[in-house]
Amino acid sequence: MRTSSRQLLSARGRSGVVGCAGSGPERACEGFPVEAGRGGSLWERLRAWQTVLIPLFVGLFRRADALAVAMDARCYGAEPCRTSLHDRRLAGPSLAVLAAGLALCAAVAAAL
After folding, report:
1. Could you give the CA distance from residue 102 to residue 105 in angstroms, rounded to a whole number?
2. Domain tally, the chain
3. Domain residues for 27?
4. What is the pLDDT at residue 4?
């Protein structure tokens, strides 16, 4: 069930607290006081924003780690040049080995 921003503001606006709807990094601002970003020294404002910034950066690092693992699993950037597929034809020595192998299998089958 999604909650609109108007419902959040009307329900929590009276208490001076604003919440965010959704998931992901924006979820971090749940319960963030409206007045926290206003006034005060730089240190006080940073301290008030820590409830938003810490989960945001943790989420960013988790996403970056998952992306790095996915890129590594797909060997992204492993080869400096592009690979290609060469068609191979059955000819020459390969045909001789195949014929010898089939003759050997036929001889073993006849002996049994």
Report:
1. 5
2. 1
3. 5-73
4. 56
